[in-house]
Amino acid sequence: MSVVEAQASTELEPHAWLGLVLDHFARGEQALGRLSLALDLPIANGSLGSLNELRNRLRMAESRKAKALEQRIARWRKNRPFRHLLAHATITVLFDSMSQPFVVTRHLPRDAEDVTPDRVWSLEERKELLRQASNDSRSICDHVRNLLADPIEHNKLRKS
Q: What are the residue ranges spanned by the domains of the chain?
């Protein structure tokens, strides 16, 4: 087995996969929290407490950098429900008749109204979520770094 194959199989081991996906979500959250702090947005309710205000500022900005970050945040947010599910799930691995592994995430309800469903993840679905989480976190971190490194753009966003 080559090093690349070994690394890929380790990344898709269910608990390692879950950890990697959550790590990528956390990196995106940290970068957005850093940007919120730099723009003097309140973070009293967590680093994403002002995410809507941040997105509004990015939408109103005229620069391509700001628009690109806002578009990436929009895509990243579509996968955020998985972050909650995975952060609070138990994992079970089941095998089908062809010995293909499937990961089942079971979520303990937060309260009587919580309807978070259990989820069955195929290998392809796990690869795709990991790919998207990795791309989104890397892109968000890069965009935030670029915006913070540009004092003119930073000041425009701060004043809007």
A: 3-159
User: What distance in Å separates the CA atoms of residue 9 and residue 131, rounded to the nearest whole number?
Assistant: 14
- Tell me the pLDDT band of 82, cut-offs 50, 70 and 90: confident
CA–CA dist 28, 34 (Å, integer): 10
Sheet holding 89-95, edge to edge: 89-95, 101-107, 119-121
Spatial separation of the C-alpha atoms in residues 63 and 50, rounded to whole Å: 21
- The whole-angstrom separation of Cα 137 and Cα 21 is 10
Neighbours of 96 (CB within 10 A): 9
Measured between alpha carbons, how far is 24 from 83 in angstroms, rounded to an integer? Answer: 10
Alpha carbon distances (Å) from 37 to 17, 47, 112: 30, 8, 36
∠ CA 70-21-115, rounded to 5°: 85
Extract the tokens encoding 66.
Answer: 């700001």
pLDDT at 102: 87
At residue 29, what are phi and psi to the nearest 5 degrees?
A: -60, -40
